Amino acid sequence: MTRINLLPWREMARKESKRQFISIGIGAVMLMGLVIFYAHIHMASMIADQNSRNTFLEEETARVDNQIKEIKNLEAEKNNLLARMNIIQQLQSRRSQIVHIFDEIEKTLPAGVYLTGMRQEKGELVLNGVAESNGDVSSFMRNLEASDWFESPWLEVIQSINKSPEKSAEKTKEARYNNQFTLHVKQTGSNEDDKEIKGKKDKENKKK
Question: I want to staple 144 with a disulfide (CB 3.0 to 4.6 A). Which of 79, 122, 150, 176 is the partner?
């Protein structure tokens, strides 16, 4: 019976299996390396794209913020212009009011009263003057109350400015007016100009 020695063949088969295993291992490592490298490149590209989008969004946000600031500035300028226009309209509408006021003051002054000063404070007139007697001041206040241009007159102060007795038979003008007074009176605003202004404001409110 012939005997065959299988040891060299088995040794060769083991070496071949080992070589294939090493080759497969190296191939798997290389493939894994390629996969990792591709994944790294892909992620880096995605990060770069996202950063680019973020930069674009930040630039657009800054641009929109600047536009919002410009709009706010324009709104503020618009409101200032509207306020100035309203003031100008009111001044134009009331340009004849001072004439009416002086005319009405002249009509309401009694014979025993004359004014030394007049000023306007917060919608009311402050009148300074002198009178022959307290009754003349009261008459002046009643005339103001009856006027269509004034209301609610009130006396702040009245005092005598000539307490010494008369030595001369002739009375000068200054000697006769020996009661100094200060009174306040409100302006009613019932003239046609104020009515026109109120009508314009009502129309603007309805539009809003």
Answer: 150
Q: Which residue has the tokens 């605003």?
A: 189
pLDDT tens-place values along the chain, 208 residues long: 555 555 577 778 788 888 888 888 898 889 998 999 999 998 988 998 999 999 999 999 999 999 999 999 999 999 999 998 888 877 776 666 777 888 888 888 888 888 888 888 777 888 998 988 888 889 988 998 888 888 888 888 787 775 555 544 444 555 566 788 999 988 875 444 444 444 544 555 555 4
Q: Residue 70: CB partners within 8 Å, gap ≥ 6?
A: none
Closest-CA residue to 115 (of 140, 139, 138): 140
The pTM (predicted TM-score) of the whole model is 0.45
Beta bridge partners of 201: none
| Residue 5 domain-assigned (yes or no) | no
CATH number for 159: 3.30.1360.100
Containing structural domain, residue 135: 73-163+174-208
